[in-house]
Amino acid sequence: MSRRFTPKVVTANRLREGDVVYLTADDRWSPFHHEAELIEDEAHAQMRLLHGAAQKLVVVGAYLADAKPGPNGPEPTHFREEFRTRGPSNYNHGKQADYA
Q: Where do the record's region annotations for Disordered lie (predicted)?
């Protein structure tokens, strides 16, 4: 028996800066998880992952991450993905400064 598919987002790291980014429904890479396209179909998720991974001059390490619908867009369901939404934690800059 196969597992039920859970909603996903496509995430990667921007090649130049290393920042975490998320693939949006209009094919942009956004630094904000809530702007990501929430994918609820397994076949569509695989197609979006292939689309993201093919952009080798823009991003690296694209993969599907579990997510759930939220009031302002997708929300991460795993602590690792929650941590990635905030950026580096050694001092407040970038996303950390924006959330402070």
A: 67-100
